[in-house]
Design a protein that fits this description.
Blueprint lengths: L10 E7 L6 E10 L2 E11 L5 E2 L9 E2 L1 E10 L9 E4 L1 H5 L15 E4 L25 E4 L9 E3 L1 H10 L7 E6 H5 L1
Parallel strand pairs: 1-11, 4-5, 6-7, 9-10
Antiparallel strand pairs: 1-2, 2-3, 6-8, 6-11, 8-9
Length: 184
């Protein structure tokens, strides 16, 4: 899948799911130094409850496999020093949370994954250029200890590191999928 990473990209968040049907993943930050990709950080993470898919659909509880740009961020908390454009909005994110208390901090910080979304708009913008049935609203966000509807989650320190590190000038992307798919 590295062949799908745009030539000008200098940062990649790679999400390796163990198996096609697993919600558990490893999230690794790679940064390009000269012509070499260097692993600079990694964290445990989660992805869709039912694993990965190459044909994501709304509410299928699978994360889309592929390479997607990362252009916008936000959350319910104040900007922790994000280099990506950051939109804070307590109300917009709170309306998307399930009622369980275990998810109360999921959207403290988010980075929008540019899957079926417009760039340069808040992560909570619900425009879907490829249609609602293709899903959307897929983010990197705070981990709550298990699989998601389709997002990728990491612990709070990882979110802060990603927000402070991902630089729009380096054209960051996320490369995500199960290990077998990523190796193909």
């Amino acid at each position: 899948m590295w062949s799908e990473v745009p030539a000008g990209t200098g940062q990649a968040v790679v999400v390796y799911g163990e198996r096609r049907d697993s919600p558990d993943s490893l999230v690794v930050l790679y940064q390009k130094r000269d012509s070499t990709w260097v692993r600079t950080a990694s964290w445990p993470g989660h992805n869709g409850r039912l694993g990965w898919t190459e044909d994501h659909r709304m509410d299928d509880e699978r994360s889309p496999a592929g390479v997607f740009t990362l252009t916008d961020a936000g959350g319910t908390l104040a900007d922790p020093g994000s280099r990506l454009r950051y939109w804070r909005d307590d109300h917009a994110y709170a309306t998307m949370l399930p009622p369980e208390q275990s998810h109360a901090h999921d959207f403290d910080y988010v980075i929008a994954i540019d899957y079926n979304r417009l760039k340069d708009v808040p992560p909570f913008d619900w425009s879907r250029p490829d249609g609602v049935e293709k899903g959307g609203g897929i983010w990197l966000h705070m981990d709550h200890g298990d699989g998601t509807s389709a997002c990728v989650t990491v612990p709070e320190p990882a979110m802060k590191t990603l927000l402070r590190t991902l630089d729009p000038a380096r054209q960051p992307v996320v490369v995500m999928g199960d290990r077998a798919h990523l190796a193909a």
